[in-house]
């Protein structure tokens, strides 16, 4: 029996938050809130969250409503504040990266150097160009993977997920952004492996640019 006005945090709180965020991922005009919600959900994924939730529930069952509310509020408040700070830091980092001109390695088609590679500014890329990426690179455009080897990409700036994403050439039709493992997105960072991909969007047409519109 719980004290009036109190409710124990559900054990699947993080999973439910993530599900709600995924459902809203494609809604127009929600890029900022969705990204913040992902960041908060990642903070709530901390191993201490279930322990604190269980403690709050036990306190409520024992009739200590005030203590339960305090524990629950502290848990949620900490996640909200930490999520905001993390999102702000990521935004600053993105701004610094955007101030630097990203260089892409584009495959040469035709001529004596056919099949070779050339370094070009990201702004020179066009849809249909084939690019190569490896550890340490910033992805210069949205691209569909053609080949990859142990490729992992940091997409936290887009999805809020702190863990690097393992990429694969297998198609992911209808998948939400965080699960599009066959795609590379502009502005994300390659942390391991290498890959080869065909450009599908550049400049203002990339996911990053359209989500901010």
Task: Detail the topology: elements first, then pairings.
Blueprint: H1 13-24, H2 31-44, H3 48-61, H4 65-99, E1 103-107, E2 117-121, E3 130-134, E4 142-154, H5 156-159, E5 165-166, E6 183-184, E7 189-201, H6 207-212
Antiparallel strand pairs: 1-2, 1-3, 3-7, 4-5, 4-6, 4-7
Helix pairs in contact: 1-2, 2-4, 3-4
Strand content: 15-25%
Which architecture of the largest domain would the CATH scheme give at its second level?
Distorted Sandwich
| Structural domains: how many | 2
User: How would you sum up the global shape?
Assistant: elongated
Radius of gyration: 21 Å
CATH superfamily of the largest domain: Calcium-transporting ATPase, cytoplasmic transduction domain A
Instruction: Tell me the number of helical segments per DSSP (H or I, 4 or more residues long).
Output: 6
- Round the mean pLDDT to the nearest integer and report it: 78
Could you name the CATH class of the largest domain?
Mainly Beta
**H/E series, N to C?**
HHHHEEEEHEEEH
CATH topology title of the largest domain: Calcium-transporting ATPase, cytoplasmic transduction domain A
Cα distance, first to last residue?
A: 48 Å
Note poorly predicted spans: 1-14, 20-30
**Structural class category:** alpha+beta
| Main β-sheet description | 7 strands, antiparallel
Helix content: 25-40%
Number of E-state strands: 7
């Amino acid at each position: 029996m719980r004290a009036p006005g109190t409710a124990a945090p559900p054990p699947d709180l993080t999973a439910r938050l993530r599900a709600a965020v995924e459902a809203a991922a494609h809604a127009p005009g929600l890029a900022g809130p969705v990204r913040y919600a992902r960041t908060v959900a990642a903070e709530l994924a901390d191993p201490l969250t279930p322990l604190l939730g269980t403690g709050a529930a036990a306190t409520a069952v024992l009739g200590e409503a005030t203590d339960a509310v305090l524990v629950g509020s502290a848990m949620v408040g900490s996640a909200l504040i930490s999520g905001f700070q993390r999102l702000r830091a990521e935004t600053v980092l993105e701004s610094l990266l955007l101030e630097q001109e990203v260089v892409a390695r584009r495959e040469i088609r035709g001529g004596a150097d056919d099949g070779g590679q050339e370094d070009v500014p990201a702004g020179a890329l066009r849809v249909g160009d084939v690019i190569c990426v490896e550890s340490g690179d910033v992805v210069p455009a949205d691209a569909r993977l053609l080949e990859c080897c142990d490729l992992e990409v940091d997409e936290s700036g887009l999805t809020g997920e702190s863990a690097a994403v393992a990429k694969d050439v297998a198609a992911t039709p209808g998948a939400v952004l965080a699960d599009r493992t066959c795609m590379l997105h502009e502005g994300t960072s390659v942390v391991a492996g290498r890959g080869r991909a065909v450009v599908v969007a550049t400049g203002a047409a990339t996911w990053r640019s359209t989500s901010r519109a």
